[in-house]
Design goal:
single chain; mainly beta; nine-stranded mixed β-sheet; five-stranded mixed β-sheet; 2% helix
Amino acid sequence: MLRIALGLILISTVFSDWAMGQSLKGNCDINCIYCEDIDGFSTAYENGQAGTGPSDFCTLNQHQVTWIGFVAGSTDLCIQVDVTDCSGGNNPRLEIGIVEANDCSNASVISNCYGGSNRNAIREGRSGVVTADKELVIGKYYFLVFDMTGFAPNACAFSLSVICGSTGAPVLDTPPVLEEDVQICDYESYNFQADVFGACDYLWELDDVEVANSLDYTFEPTNVGIYTLCATPFNFCEVGPKGCTTIKVGEPTEEYVDLLACKEDCTEYNGITYCDEGIVELDYENYLGCDSTIILNVLWHNPDPYNYLGEIQLCAGEEYEINGESFDREGTYEVYNEDIYGCDEITEFDLIVLDSIKTEINKSLCAPEFYILGTDTLRDSGTFIKKFVSDQGCDSLVRAELIFNPSYEIPLQEIICNGQDVTIGGRSFNRTGLYTIELKSRAGCDSIIFLDLLQSDTIYRYYSQQICDDNFYTFGDTTLRTSGVYRRSYLSAVGCDSIEVVDLEVYPTHESYLQESICTGEGYEINGEIFSTSGLFQLELLSRENCDSIITLDLIVIEHQEEYLQLELCQGDSIEFNQVYYSEALSEIFTFDAANGCDSTIIFDLSITDSYDISLSETICSGDSILFDNGYVKDRGITNPYSVLQVDVIA
């Protein structure tokens, strides 16, 4: 909020240069509020200017609504409006009222209103006074809203005079004075109020953190400690200096005090005497004024001064001494004394004088028990005599007659068929399990039988078995070699009926013959093994059922074929090869797929021979002939197979 207030102040500072006679705003605008006194402000309507006024404005119809913002300098306000220079038709008049609109919302008239609905709109040459009908907040902004009776070009000029109260933002030049050195407890709260004249609001900061934007602030502590609270006053146009104070937050204290005294005495604390043992709570205020408690625990050094020592035994002729007194006769005695704290203490005891002791012991025990006689540990039957010195130092003779009876632990394993049971110690058992049976021997010693009982029901065993056809399966006294379901009955080892069923599946062994061919440079793979030469190979594998499988591979490696084709053409001739016509010299290697699927290479070598024109002229006699180009020529004329021959025949 402080940042918002500072922003508004900067806007209003610029607006403070707004000169008298400037045009009015058509609508509510908090960015154009006049921070200085509007006393003497004057202006005139501009033709066509129109805006929107509050819904409760006193005009019959809103025609040319305009706004001017100002800051209250007092709680009351009276503004005289003088109307001059009206123009337009139908007797134009000015309508006016004071309006409150926070952030330009929820606008409402807060004064008497001059307007058409009240039949008192101010005409040219007349004046009217608008008076706020509610107490204004000093430093807060308000608005004067105007309208004309009628649309443009109706217009009037007017001036304002503040005749009661004041306008203009008060100067905030003093910090707020907050109550100093506030001390509260952590369960309390404290309300702070600031009193700077002209401030309509305050920004509250607790330890430099913004916590509120209000006229007052209620501090509610969350922890014990020291806090700094600051308030910054501001109104719409100004921010004043910050005022701060310190808040100390304390907490109630609880103190425990032990008061110790003798039970027969009393004790004192802060002038009060306490004679009863127990807890006493004292309430007081600590140095911060917080409710605090002192818990007194009144305790006696000797809460029970009576101390009974029990029986004290002496041998005949000895004495018992306590606190300087000696006693040698049987009886009950009380001795008075003071303890280490000086408190009364009464000691009572019974004194017993002992003669020499003779003791007879007859004991029947169960092994592996033992009997301790003095420092001896006895585990065997017999008579034992031991002389002791009693705890009181008197002679004591003990004669012990001991009998050790044996205890038994018997493991027992039994197997029964279904429907049978076994009885031990009066208990029957008919289910498989481990049982511990506790019995007593004739001598009364513990005897334990550990029964391991197995109940053997009629056994029905079903299982499947797989073999290869070159093997067999033994089923009882039968040898099986073919697939099928076989059943047999027999007596188990414990004599119970049993049935065994086997589902036998016989898998065949396999032999296969493969004849394959590959091209030179290739390989043939079987079960991860690669073959690349011609030959007959035999592989021993396992089938899917783990039976022997023999594969015979007959592999042929086809050699690569290569042909050299040499051709010669005359100049101008052509020849077709591989569906292409060639007429120029060429030497190229062509690769084809042979009929056997392997590559075949042809080296194509084409050469071109130049042509020659040779003219020969011969003369022969009639009836003769001449040999030319492997033939005989005997007639006159021109022969031209590859060359030209001119023959003349003489008759």
